[in-house]
Amino acid sequence: MFESVGSLTGSPWIYAMVALSVLLDVFLPVLPSGVLVIAAATAAAAGSGAASGAVPHEVPDILALILSAATASLLGDLVAYRLAWRGGARLDRAISRSRRLTDAQERLGVALARGGGALVILARFAPAGRSLVSLGAGAAHRRARDFLPWSALAGLSWAVYSVALGYFGAQWLGATWLATGVSFLALFGAGAGAAYLMRREPEPAEAAAAG
After folding, report:
1. For FRET with 5, which of 88, 123, 169, 180 sits at 20 to 30 Å CA-CA?
2. Stretch 188-197: mean pLDDT, rounded?
3. Using one digit for the tens of pLDDT, what is the confidence trace for 115-147?
């Protein structure tokens, strides 16, 4: 596995594959974009391909992976946001029938109104959370300047975390199945933790009552 991924890591195609996977998983959350990022970072740590320094324009492989994943994450959020913004009555009806989308829309509105975007960052790690928040922000016509900076920070945080898992996991445990398994568990653990914290986020009515 590491040899095949490592040979791909040494070419520009790995960045295109990472970017495409991250870009599309806002619409198809089942895509294993995080797994691909971890596998590429693990191969880089193993000293294959681009990890040896053979990268165009002398861009380190790890930095290129982070940049590819973070940029694609922001672009995917932007596309979902704009599509939802222009979705019209049909999308509004679809959101109103989905409790998860309705809740995400309400919580996001409260978070952005308070000047904070912790929910946007948490959602980037939670399974399908990125989709819920991006579509909810667009459907609710939240201002781009309130949402997109937090989306960019969320994408960068997720990219750094995912790459670090693969890279340092291989550095500490070697490029073995054990290192890969530990990295994947840490990624899924972060997702489970983020999903739990999102569910614990108070509803607007509860927040008002507490205040």
Report:
1. 123
2. 84
3. 467 888 988 998 888 888 888 888 778 888 888
The pair of three-digit structure tokens given for residue 63, joined into one six-digit string: 């930095």
Residue 59 DSSP class? -
CB proximity list for 191: less than 8 A, separation 6 or greater: 125, 126, 127
Interatomic CA distance for residues 41 and 199, integer angstroms: 31
Q: Which two tokens stand for residue 50?
A: 């681009």
Rounded CA separation 118/108 (Å): 9
- Mean local confidence (pLDDT), 186-202: 77
| Cα(145)–Cα(154) distance, integer angstroms | 15
Which residue type is seen at 167?
Answer: Y
Structure tokens that stand for 209 in this block:
């009552």
Q: At what angle do helices 13-24 and 33-45 cross, to 10 degrees?
A: 150
Closest CA to 36 of 171, 180, 149: 180
> What confidence category does residue 111 fall into, taking pLDDT thresholds of 50, 70 and 90?
low
pTM of the model: 0.76
